[in-house]
Amino acid sequence: MGISCYRIRIFLRKLDTKFPAAARKALRVLFSLIAPGSLLVRPMRYNTVCEKIPGQYVQGLKDLLSYIQGHIGKAGSMVEVGSYAGESTEIFATAFQTVYAVDPWAEFRMKHIEKKFDERAKRKPNIIKMKKFSADAASFFQDESLDFVYLDARHDYASVKNDIHHWLPKIKERCFIGGHDYNEGEKVGVIRAVDEMFGKPDKVFMDSSWVKQIG
User: How far is residue 126 from each of residues 36, 77, 104, 122, measured CA to CA in Å?
Assistant: First the structure.
């Protein structure tokens, strides 16, 4: 399991009484350097993420979906790359006829997260689970077959650019690509990759989701 930001803060407070000063300093430096997505810390959506307010996250995705529906009307099929525990997948499933949820759930700690996803997916029969890495999953789709692709897997520059490269041909003309964490914080790789590929997104929402219409 990932360690929530709240649990890290509690742990660090306990250092004051249980570890020598040198050890406390070293552990604090270690936690400050751990990047989201690593084996120790991956920020979970909703209640375990430090930098997001739950209402902002949900409302941001709803605004994103309203924006897309305002342009293309009734939405057909989409892919979410990086579904994790399925919170956003459930929201997407309220707006699209079919949601393909792509995630390898590959690390040993991901068994619990995958189980949470499976529980959510059972409630939405239009969610199709694809336990694959991004590039492998992309090969299963025909070009210009999808209304929307949402990228929320690895957030480093090279990974985001590779995801865009693999999924962009799969999107229909005048439909959309988007993703998460377009912000100036620790996810600057997202901004760099998106801006290099598209100039700028068409719109960025309150949860830091971005979107770009193709063609």
Answer: 29, 10, 19, 9
CA 177 to chain centre: 13
Residues 37 and 72 in one domain: no
Are 27 and 125 in the same domain?
no
What pLDDT, on a 0 to 100 scale, did the predictor assign at position 16?
42
Question: What is the rounded CA–CA span in Å between residue 169 and residue 2?
Answer: 33
The 10s digit of each residue's pLDDT in 95-151 is 999 999 999 999 888 999 999 999 999 999 999 999 999 999 999 999 999 999 999
Residue with token string 């999924």: 167
Burial of 168 (0-12, 13-18, 19+ CB in 10 A): middle
Task: Give the pLDDT confidence score for residue 31 in this predicted structure.
Answer: 44
> Quick one: average pLDDT of 14-31?
47
My answer on whether 96 and 191 are in the same domain is: yes
Is pLDDT of 53 > 70? no
Q: Domain span at residue 144?
A: 54-213
User: Does residue 167 sit in the same domain as residue 75?
Assistant: yes
Q: What are the residue ranges of helices labelled H in the chain?
A: 5-18, 21-33, 54-72, 87-93, 110-122, 134-138, 157-167, 188-198
Total number of domains in the chain: 2
Q: Are residues 123 and 193 in the same domain?
A: yes
Q: Are residues 208 and 136 in the same domain?
A: yes
Residue of 47 and 141 predicted with greater confidence: 141
Residues 201, 211 contacting (CB under 8 angstroms): yes
CA 213 to chain centre: 19
